[in-house]
Amino acid sequence: MKKVSCWILSAVLFLGMISSALSDRVIEEKPWYYLGAHQVVWCKEWISLREEPKKTSRRILKIPLGAIVYNVKDIKDELFYEVEYEGVTGYALKGYLKATPQYEPPASSAITVKMTLDEVIGNGEVVLEWKDYNMSVVAAHEFVREKRKKWEVLRIGCFIDGEPIWGHEEKVEAEYAKYDLLKVFIGGVADDWQVMLYDGGYGLSMLDLLSGRERWCLSSKDISLGDAAAIAVDDNGTTYIAGTDGPDPVAISLDGRVMWESEIEDPEVFAPYEIFFDNGTVKVRYRSGIENGCKIVTLDSTGEVLSVKEEYITADAQK
Q: What are the 10-residue block averages of pLDDT along the chain, 319 residues in total?
């Protein structure tokens, strides 16, 4: 990025004043009839999702034993709850459903305000320090307890010559989260860098570097990126993400479109931790339970798996 001139700085300061009043999303208080995620139990193979809360109503589809249903609501019926399964809403018998709050999608909130560097860091761990000429971005991550709940918190601050331009705080409920759900990294392309924010309860967003405003968001309802354990951005601004428990590598374009989703069928390939590029291919390193080594999966430009190979660290390399 070329050095920010005075008139751009003035515009940025103005945008920062506007963005300081933004509240991108807040945690919605759930009504009394909202019961959250449930699991199908105590049946032989499946239960029916019906069109109406009646045993004689038309079956829309079958929900298998062990499946998770979402947005469960109490409709004041003795036998049925309203539920959502694979995007379809219908009615299922209460007797075969068990509350499973650990599967409830995390509540998420965000606020955008100016923050000093000390306010950004707070008591957290610095997870991003980026600088280009006189512009810098710093982010810190921590866990806190508020109102008897555990929260994962990510704070991001953007600065020009050390002066705060905009700041952003992201929070996600972490009581049942297995992995960290908040990640931040720099995306975009040379001379047009952007801040990329991943919230497991909201989605992947591109935040404008100069204002902090959300340029686009790929909702977690459209594609779940898990814990986004491995992340990389190529020279074209394409973002590649893989999660510990899934998904397999996903490619996301500069404008927020899913370009492809890879499928790695080898069950011995798991726990990604690095994505890198080599001669037009995308390579992902997986721990896969290999001591002093890993498995490297090579993908072509469409996400097709070209090879799966083991790689070991030699004794000389370890020294």
A: 41 40 52 92 96 97 94 95 91 96 74 90 97 96 88 96 94 82 95 94 90 87 88 97 93 95 93 96 96 95 96 61
Q: How far apart are CA 94 and CA 258, in angstroms?
A: 37
Question: What's the pTM?
Answer: 0.72
Instruction: Report how far residue 51's alpha carbon sits from residue 61's, in angstroms, rounded to the nearest whole number.
Output: 9
What is the C-alpha separation between 170 and 202, in angstroms, rounded? Answer: 10
Instruction: DSSP for 138-200, please give it.
Output: EEEEEEEEETTEEEEEEEEEEEETTEEEEEEEEEEE-SS-SS--EEEEEEEETTEEEEEEEET
- Residue pair 112/20 in contact by the 8 Å Cβ criterion: yes
* Gap between the terminal Cα atoms of the chain: 39
Token pair of 186 as six digits: 């720099």
Instruction: Give the total residue count for the chain.
Output: 319
Please write down the HEC assignment for all residues of 53-89.
CCCCCCEEEEEECCCEEEEEEECCCCCEEEEEECCEE
Location of structure tokens 């209460």? 94
CA dist 79 and 99 (Å) reads 16
No. of helices (H) and no. of strands (E), the chain:
3, 24
Tokens of 113: 């305000």
- 129 φ/ψ sector (left φ>0, alpha ψ -120 to 50, else beta): beta
User: To which H or E segment does residue 13 belong?
Assistant: helix 6-19
Q: What pLDDT does 27 receive?
A: 53
